[in-house]
Amino acid sequence: MGVELPAAFAEYTAALLGNEEYERLVEALAGEPPVSVRVNPAKWRLPESHAFEAVPWSAWGVYLPCRPSFTFDPLFHAGAYYVQEASSMFVEQVIRAYVKQPCVALDLCAAPGGKSTLMRTLLPEGSLLVSNEVIRTRAQVLAENMIKWGHPEVVVTNNDPSDFGALPHLFDLVLADVPCSGEGMFRKDEEAVGEWSAANVEVCWQRQRRIVEDIWRSLKPGGLFVYSTCTYNAYENEENVRWIQQHFGAEVLPVPVQDGWGVQTDLTQSTSSLPVCHFIPSHTKGEGFFLALLRKPAAGKGPVAFEEESVIASVSSKDRKKQKQTKGGKISPVPQGVERWLCRPEEVQLEVHGEHLVAFPKRSNALYEGLRERLRVLHAGILLAEQKGRDWIPHHALAMSTCVNKEAFAVAELSLADALAYLRREAVVLPATLPKGIVMLTYRRLPIGFAKNIGNRANNLYPQEWRIRSSHMPEGDLLWWE
Q: For residue 41, is the peptide bond before it cis, meaning its omega torsion is within 30 degrees of 0?
């Protein structure tokens, strides 16, 4: 790394780690950051012919020898894998160790979606995941990535942490990967070095406490709270964990770690050492990351008095209509025949929301309705279809869903060149043998979207806002998995 580290950071971190450990960190930061991806097991498996180096703490994470041009891999756009920093995949160990039953979970600061896609893969079947991001533009990216991942029991919201105060005791699990000073990103992002200052660290740890205070009420008594950052300093890490422990009476829980992983624990040399986890590039193959797991006291315990309000009852108390009304006051009926587009249509509730048809799992539908009343929902369940004139056209989100019934559509398998042309929203030539109408397009047998075959040509239905904007084709190996 060619950028000089800030003097105040060097002085503080050397005192925190010790001079020898700090020099090892500086040496590690001078190297190239590792590249890692995590496979979506609901959609894809890595070819057995390749022996990729595994991320030790992740069942589906692997390191790549170099960084390919992911933009030009159709499987990336199909949600077959997610490009995620290896250290942050450690969240997997929390869920494996402590989450055994279906639950309601919240990823509070979720964009761009790495931890949310990981959580959605790992949470027990029947769980509902709410993925939230406060910044609108980042929330749109989060929604795109969750749609591509394909799981139906997801709600993507665009809310401030304080908005969740309207949902007391709803969540069994809350992950707060709080905004931080970004010291752990110095190797990957030189701008993070330039933006760092001791004053910003001060701002960050105070903001982090406000976020925790805002969200704590929505966590169930006895619920799990994952606090994480991508920074090293104790102000934003150990000291904030101790504050949560003391202010809310929370219990800090150990997360299982194997010796060979190189994970470090409490760096503060305190007599009351905390069972927290530090990922430091000089010890682990990944960027800087910190994680602590806490349990909220049971009702009636600890310094905070709990309300006994049942949020489930409050969000499902009204007798809501299951179909959306149009501006003219007439009920918009669910179009006939669309249920065959899904593998298990009996498990979802179909609703018309304006010009869109949405399918949401029945077992979580009452809760979803309550979330819609209180939060800004950007995406939920499966966006099944969009109304165009008198016709209902399958939505791209349906092609991305793991619930899509491929047998309901004519299918055209595309070459790499044709798949990239489709993803650029260019014209696609389909085989003359295909019938007119909606055609599902696949690459390596994985759906990448829909087109409408009108005989002499096909209308490209890929979302305009998601298209590949570059016409450049990079040289070298594009498909790292071949």
A: no
pLDDT value at 316 more than 70: no
* pLDDT tens digit sequence for 408-421: 999 999 999 999 99
| C-alpha of 50 from chain center | 27
What is the domain partition of the chain in residue ranges? 7-295, 318-400, 409-466
The amino acid that residue 286 corresponds to is G
Q: Give the separation between CA 297 and CA 38, rounded to whole angstroms.
A: 34
Length of the chain: 482
The two beta strands, 171-177 and 154-157, are unpaired
User: What is the Cα Rg of the chain in Å?
Assistant: 24
What's the token pair of residue 442?
């696949």
Contacts of 246 (CB under 8 A, 6+ apart): none
Examine domains 7-295 and 409-466 and report if their fold is the same.
no
Cβ(181)–Cβ(201) under 8 Å?
Answer: yes
**CA of 65: how far to CAs of 74, 154, 482, in Å?**
20, 33, 13
The residues, ordered by sequence, that sit 6+ positions from 389 with a Cβ below 8 Å of its Cβ are none
DSSP code of residue 243: H
3-class secondary structure, 40: coil
What does pTM read for this prediction?
A: 0.93
Q: Which of 69, 127, 51, 158 is nearest to 479 (CA)?
A: 69
The answer to whether 442 touches 413, Cβ cutoff 8 Å, is yes
Quick check: 39 pLDDT over 80?
Answer: yes
Q: CA 423 to CA 474: how far, in whole Å? A: 16
Torsion, Cα 21 25 30 31, to 10 degrees, reads 110
Stretch (H or E) spanning 462: none
Compute the distance between CA of residue 451 and CA of residue 73 in angstroms, rounded to an integer.
19
At position 20, the amino acid (one-letter code) is E
Four-CA torsion 185, 187, 190, 191, nearest 10 degrees: 0
> Would you identify the CATH topology of the domain 7-295?
Rossmann fold (3.40.50)
On whether the 409-466 domain is CATH 2.30.30.700, my answer is no
Report which of residues 471 and 100 the model is more confident about.
100
Which three-class secondary structure string do you get for 168-225? CCCEEEEEEECCCCCHHHCCCCHHHHHHCCHHHHHHHHHHHHHHHHHHHCCEEEEEEE
Burial 388-416 (b: 16+ CB within 10 A, else e): eeeebbbbbbbbbbebbbeebbbebebee
